[in-house]
Amino acid sequence: MSAAAGLERPQVVSHVQQALSYTVFDCKWVPRSARLLCLGSAARGTGLVQLYELHGARLELLREIEKPKPIKCGTFGATSLQQRYLATGDFDGNLNIWNLEAPEIPVYSVKGHKEIINSIDGVGGLGIGEGAPEIVTGSRDGTVKVWDPRQNDTPVANMEPVQGESKRDCWTVAFGNAYNQEERVVCAGYDNGDIKLFDLKTMSLRWETNIKNGVCSVEFDRKDINMNKLVATSLEGKFHVFDMRTQHPTKGFASVSEKAQKSTIWQVRHLPQNRDIFMTSGGSGSLHLWKYEYPAQRSKKDSEGSEMGVAGSISLLQNVTLSTQPISSLDWSPDKKGLCVCGAFDQTVRVLIVTKLNKI
Amino acid sequence: MGDESVPYLLGEGTTKTYQIPISHLDYKFIEKCTDVKHLEKILRVLRSGEEGCYPELTLACEKRIECLDPRSRALRKEKPAATASDFTAEEWEAINSELMGWLTEMNEDDKKSQLLRTDTLNERQDNLPPIRCSSSCLPTSQNKKLQNKQRSKKNIPRDYSEWDKFDVEKECSKIDEDGEESNSKARFSSRTSLPMIEKKIDTTGMTKREKIFIATREKEKGNEAFATGDYLEAVTYYTRSISVIPTAAVYNNKALAEIKLQDWDNALQDCEKVLDMEPGNIKALMRRATVHSHLQNYQAAIEDLNNVLSVEPENSRAKKSLLEIEEKLKGLKPISEPQGKGKKILIEEIEDAESGEGKGEDTEECERHGGDTTPAAPAAARAAAGEPAMGNAHRKSHGKGKAHDRDAHKHRDCAESGAEKGAPEKKAEKHLSDHEGEVNGYLRSDEKSESAEAEIKSRGEGSRSAAGDSSTSLPPTAAKLKSEGNELFKSGQFGEAVLKYSEAIEYVTGLGEQNPDDLSILYSNRAACYLKEGNCSDCIQDCNRALELQPFSLKPLLRRAMANESMERYRQAYIDYKTVLQIDSSIQAANDSANRITKTLIDQDGPSWREKLPPIPVVPVAAQIHRWDGGALTSEKPSTIDISREEQLQMNREEAMEKFKRLKNEGNDLVKMGEYEEAANKYSECMKLNPEEYTVYTNRALCYLKLYKYEEAKRDCDHVLQIEDSNIKAFYRRALAYKGLQNYQASVDDFNKVLLIDPNVLEAQKELEEVTQLLHLDSSAGDGSQQMQGKKITIQEVTEPDGQEERHVAAEEAVPKQVPRRSPEKLRVSAPSNAYDFGQIVNAVNATKDKAACADLLTITEPKRLPVLLSNKLEGEILLVFIQSLEHYVAGKDPGLAYQHLFYLSKAERFKVVVALLSKNEKEEVQQLFDLLSESQSDQYSLEDLESLRKVYEL
């Protein structure tokens, strides 16, 4: 790489590193603020939520909340910009919603699953996605449940394998297609490589595929548009980008895959300000910044005259290795383009700045 | 060398992993190998070190792969995160300060939002859609059975323990093949119909911040959709963004998307909205030009492009499309213009348009007088001068072959103006959009927009109405009628629009409520319709009513002026135009019309025409603000002027001070955040309120520097230095601006001045060194292009890009054009009508030595009239200023005009005396100008002419 070309590419700067005394599973920016949350499990087996504020080149701990069960995942996706309630899923299968200013008692609590909630996502809040605020949880018990914070105790939708079928561990869930009040889909990824797309409007399984290896993370490039792209990362280091605009009757969605590293890709997160740029975090402590490039024609007619999608290509914008341990969580700041936080199994949370994202 | 020979000597056998012959691990082989896959294998072997460690060979192999396939995966290496050392100090600083800026903003925001904890939450939750009423059904159960069947065929998922044995390399190499395959297993269920996206976003109960956040995101979504070619979707998202917070940028983007969709009408509307908000927005002008050209409205397109070029003379896209459009026009003309003469005229027009950007007004003036001898450039000149759309009507008739020398004909020839009246109807059928522009055109041409829209917009600050939203004070029925009227007006159904407006007026007056603002607008709108219909007397009546309600509001005044003009009541029209100019001197159309009418009146009434004029009303200071502050203007209750005058003055001052402070702070904050464009806008607003405060100018100069608008930056600095001649910041920034303009000599001078004032300014020292170097480089390279200067620049630049020198000149051309528009509080030059006016301006110019303004003056003054205008006031100093401004601003782009001025100067009284008294240095200046002229070419003078003129100047 010539030096000049290298300079024009985005650079990933590790702005702050904060060592933690517990295992961090998830980290999240608090919307409309310079604060971030670290969710995890303390050594003695309890759950921890830490609220940090970014002050120049350091993180200041504002609040630490301890809960009985280790917390696996959290989201702000279903709360309003003013309330900013955090929804969490814990090791015991509980879905809780917290008011961080009064965190003693959850605003909403339900024992949603029999086993650990691996993944959580929200939509309809923060001005992202039309329609009702909803939270989806995916659990080791094999079910994917959709919750409305206004309805206690029971999910508004439940997607579980039929009787007798072996339960797969659901590792990841994501909302998408929420461009008007009716439309909404949930995508779930399972340990066996299954990816299922549930249409919440028609309450049906819209599409499924298998990427052969466990699906660690799925995310739509944007939740609140007519679904456009879906990225699914897998256990062995590959990820797939599906063009979700054109669904072929038999072939489904066109996709392109790419290998990021030699280890699991734990997470994929799209840049909130540009849907075609996304970052993957890997088992080897590395981060890769990618860009999806659309093909000249996004769809074509097959021999029978039905529309089929055409996949684009992916280019690597930058990669960095931050740690020897897996980076398990990743979150872009919704407010500041290029600001990003990641938590790794080396018990460190890092605030990163990705430069020159405007010039891509 | 050792690295090279060792593997070669060992050369037998194969590597362990890939069974590559050892001989392949060699520079020569790698150099010739074109098989990337093979090279990648070699690289892996080399990296693994199993055949020994050859760092240089590895590097060579990497390079080879990079040159064959830069995106090869094998090239990816583990890299640590970037640190300060990977950036230049500036970049690092920028990164950090940007983050800090954001952090402070967030912190402030936080504090605010805590106070703002609103009760609207519940309200908003009421708006939410109902809870999904699915009572947790199992949506996948039906499908699952099918799925079971498939499962059996599917490859069995790996056991967890298997992952350890997993060979990633092998797996990954399969990626490309199996991508499709895995998809084929995907199953299909129903497809949804076309996406229905809401066009509006419900923002009830949202704070400003939230709205901004949402508007920005919708815009981003639009941009993304645009990037992928989903223009319809993009338009939808832009519309959504606008529904939350309308901004010029989004309108602009939307216009582009609509252009892509060939939705010309909407694109035009959006461009015009942009130009409403940001007059002179280059992109919008470019886009509107595109739209116009597709609507076959070529003149308007040319006009827009010329406007672009007057701001950005370098804009190659504008030049290109200008040429294209002119080509089209050429192809079109002979058909529409039966006279054989037409073609020739047009060719000349083109040349003129290109060489004479920005000097249009002058050419126009020449035209009017010497009309018969030079039928060349009316359209071009007008277009270049930021043609007031008033002229549209004439231009149209021009297009139809009625007359090319429109203005002169119009006022001299009654028959012509009779035809004029009938014209609107015909045109309406042809080009709706242009037609709309016409009436509205009295607000500078680049703001030309559909009248109804403009009406609402420019007034909007004070009394938002129909198309706007809740803030209108009109009763709903009237508001509805009004918006219907606006719609009808937009679609060209003026008669119906009149009916709607009348209904609205009746309704409002019937209510007896006192809302003069809105009533005035209604009258004014109806007046616009009447004007369109050619019903001038009713138009005047309505304008009168509107003005009774709202004294000194621009629109009715302008409309009345136009109506009066077309009824040949020139005196009244003149008065109205003059009043308009008192309120806002930057309205070019009014300026031009006033000048035009002056001519007519002189023709009609002789030299004592002024005496026959009714008195021009004095506009109260409160009303003399620019349109941008229209809010303050219209919101004040109309009352008898004399009584409220002082009160208003006072109010205005206080308001202005407060507003000024606020704007300035906002500007400063924006600078900190790096939003220079917006900051510059804020500062500009500040200046309108208080043109004396020079810090605003230096600040704005900084913004312009950051935006690479050197010309503007320089002007701001110049201004500051006029007020305070030792302002170090201004010097420094001007130096930077000069550097950007590649005027290195001037830059060096300014840096020296900075260092003179404060020798410790390190930046200045550094910059000085750099610029001095550049200067040397430049002077050695620039000689050749010197001769190109005076030629018709634009054409040549397209075909053969010349040296930097020329580009500099081209940039400089923009100066005189921009002066009156961008900084109206600076010396405003309006066309002098008599010797007294002229003398005043000249004195002002002379006092400040403002050559740019002087050049302006000369450009709009007809050379022929110089002797008359100067009368016996010619003095050495004045002559010198004239010479200098001709040399610096005029000669470069229009040597013909410069020559004309020189020629007529020599006919002025006292000329001989003044020339005889010129000092040696001063003579040198004159000499330089002549040299410049003789280098330049023009059809307006020959070298002999120049020689004889030289003699007159005693050189």
Q: Can you name the CATH architecture of chain A?
A: 7 Propeller
Number of strands of chain A: 30
Mean pLDDT rating of chain A = 87
**How many strands of chain B?**
0
The largest sheet of chain A has its strands arranged as: 1-30-29-28
**Spatial gap, N to C terminus of chain A:** 17 Å
CATH topology heading of the domain at 344-351 and 360-623 in chain B: Serine Threonine Protein Phosphatase 5, Tetratricopeptide repeat
Averaged pLDDT of chain B, please? Answer: 67
Biggest sheet details of chain B: none
Name of the level-1 CATH class of chain A:
Mainly Beta
- Given the helix and strand composition of chain B, which structural class is it? mainly alpha
Assign the CATH class of the domain at 344-351 and 360-623 in chain B. Mainly Alpha
CATH superfamily of the domain at 344-351 and 360-623 in chain B: Tetratricopeptide repeat domain
Unreliable parts of chain B: 1-11, 118-123, 135-166, 171-193, 335-472, 625-644, 782-826
The CATH level-2 architecture of the domain at 344-351 and 360-623 in chain B is identified as: Alpha Horseshoe
Task: Using the CA coordinates, give the radius of gyration of chain B.
Answer: 34 Å
Lay out the secondary structure.
The complex is a heterodimer of chains A (360) and B (955).
Chain A (H helix, E strand, L loop, with lengths): L2 H6 L3 E8 L3 E7 L5 E7 L5 E9 L2 E10 L3 E5 L10 E5 L3 E5 L9 E4 L5 E7 L10 E6 L4 E4 L9 E3 L10 E7 L8 E6 L3 E6 L4 E7 L4 E6 L8 E6 L3 E6 L11 E5 L5 E7 L2 E9 L3 E8 L5 E3 L5 E3 L3 E9 L5 E6 L6 E6 L3 E7 L6
Antiparallel strand pairs in A: 1-30, 2-3, 3-4, 4-5, 6-7, 7-8, 8-9, 10-11, 11-12, 12-13, 14-15, 15-16, 16-17, 18-19, 19-20, 20-21, 22-23, 23-24, 24-27, 25-26, 28-29, 29-30
Chain B lengths: L1 H9 L16 H6 L3 H13 L6 H14 L20 H27 L4 H7 L14 H13 L8 H4 L2 H6 L1 H10 L23 H20 L3 H14 L3 H13 L3 H14 L4 H13 L3 H14 L4 H21 L4 H15 L4 H10 L8 H7 L5 H10 L6 H7 L1 H17 L1 H9 L10 H10 L15 H15 L3 H18 L4 H18 L2 H14 L4 H13 L3 H14 L4 H18 L24 H6 L5 H33 L2 H14 L4 H13 L3 H14 L4 H13 L3 H14 L4 H21 L10 H7 L4 H19 L12 H14 L2 H10 L5 H5 L5 H15 L4 H11 L5 H6 L3 H16 L7 H10 L3
